[in-house]
Design a protein that fits this description.
Length: 255
C-alpha cells in the first residue's frame, strides 16, 4: 500500500493508497509537492488526487499521539509541512480534482477542500474529526469551511466533529459530481479531459484570480482583473476563442 505519482496523458495523478483509511504518511506530502512542481510544465493540464476505498483519514492518530513528547517548535514544524503543501496547491497553475471514494476526515478533508473540483462517490462521508481527538483543524480547513458554509454549519462540523454526506455537499455546490462507488477516478479523468480542451493560460489566470479574491479588497481585485484581462485579450487563446464564436463553431485551443 503506497503513495505514488502517475502521469496519464496531460494529467498527473496522486494515488494515496495507504493503510488505515488512507491516513497521511510523509510520502503523501512529498508526492503532492512533486505533483505541484511538475504541474508547472506546459503539457500538464490537471492534477488528480485519489485514494483507496476511503480517500484520506487525515493525520495518523498513532503518530500524532507521540507528538506531545516533542518541543512545541518541532510540533509546529511538522504541521508546517502540511501547510506548505496546501500553499503549493493554492499556487498550482492547473486545476486540481479530488476523486473521493468513501470520504475524508481531518486533514484529509482539508486536502479535499484545497482542490478545485470534488468528484465523490455516492454516500461518501466527510468529517472534520479533529475535535473528537481533542485537536484543532489545520491544513486551511477553517479558512475553507468559513467561506463555503454558513458560520453555524462550519461550527457544527468543527465543534461536534460529525459527518456531512457527499449528497449534502453536492446540494451546496461543494461536491461537483456524485459518482457510483468505484467510479470517481474514471469520472475525474473525464473532467480532466474536458478541462484540457479549454484555454490553459486563461484557466491559470482564472484560478489565480479566484484564489486571490478570497483575501483581498474589491479595489485590489479590480486591479488584478484589469491586468489579467488585458493580458488575456492579447493572448492567442482569445483570438482563437473569439474567432470561433464569430464563425459559430466550437473553439479548438492548442493542446
Ligand atoms: C471516519 C473514519 C476515517 C473511517 O471510519 P470507518 O470506515 O468506520 O473505519 P474504522 O474502522 O474507523 O478505521 C479502519 C482502520 O483504520 C484506522 N484509522 C482510521 N483513521 C485513522 C487515523 N486517522 N489514524 C490512524 N488510524 C486510523 C482505524 O483505527 C482502524 O484500524 P484497525 O482496523 O487497526 O482498528 C474513522 O476511522 C475516523 O474517524 N478516523 C479518525 C479521523 C481522525 O481523527 N483523523 C485525524 C484528524 S487530526 C489530523 O488530521 C491532523 C493532522 C495534524 C498535522 C499534520 C498533518 C496531518 O494531520
Amino acid at each position: 500500500m503506497t503513495v505514488r505519482l502517475e502521469r496519464q496523458g496531460s494529467s498527473l495523478i496522486v494515488h494515496n493508497s495507504t493503510e488505515k483509511r488512507g491516513a497521511i504518511t510523509p510520502d503523501l506530502y512529498q508526492t503532492i509537492a512533486a505533483a505541484m512542481e511538475q504541474a508547472r510544465a506546459p503539457d500538464i493540464r490537471c492534477v488528480i488526487l485519489t485514494g483507496g476505498d476511503f480517500f484520506c483519514a487525515g493525520g495518523n492518530l498513532k503518530v500524532l499521539a507521540t507528538r506531545a513528547a516533542l518541543a512545541p517548535q518541532e510540533r509546529r514544524a511538522k504541521i508546517e509541512i502540511l501547510h506548505d503543501v496546501i500553499r503549493a496547491m493554492h499556487a498550482c497553475p492547473v486545476p486540481i480534482i479530488a476523486a473521493v471514494e468513501g470520504g475524508a476526515a481531518g486533514a484529509g478533508l482539508s486536502l479535499t477542500l484545497a482542490c478545485d473540483f470534488i468528484v465523490a462517490s455516492r454516500g461518501a462521508q466527510f468529517t472534520a474529526a479533529y475535535v473528537k481527538a481533542g485537536l484543532t483543524p489545520d491544513g486551511g480547513l477553517t479558512h475553507a469551511l468559513s467561506r463555503l458554509l454558513p458560520r453555524q454549519m462550519a461550527m457544527q462540523l468543527c465543534l461536534i466533529g460529525g459527518a456531512i454526506s457527499a449528497e449534502q455537499l453536492h446540494a451546496l455546490g461543494i461536491v461537483f459530481q456524485l459518482s457510483p462507488i468505484g467510479e470517481t477516478l474514471g469520472d475525474a479523468h473525464k473532467l480532466a479531459e474536458q478541462l484540457s480542451r479549454g484555454p490553459a493560460r486563461a484557466q491559470a489566470r482564472i484560478r489565480q484570480l479566484l484564489n486571490e479574491a478570497q483575501d483581498t479588497t474589491l479595489s485590489d481585485q479590480l486591479d488584478r482583473e484589469a491586468a489579467f484581462m488585458a493580458e488575456a485579450q492579447g493572448d492567442s487563446e482569445a483570438a482563437i476563442g473569439i474567432q470561433a464564436f464569430i464563425e459559430k463553431r466550437k473553439a479548438e485551443f492548442q493542446l
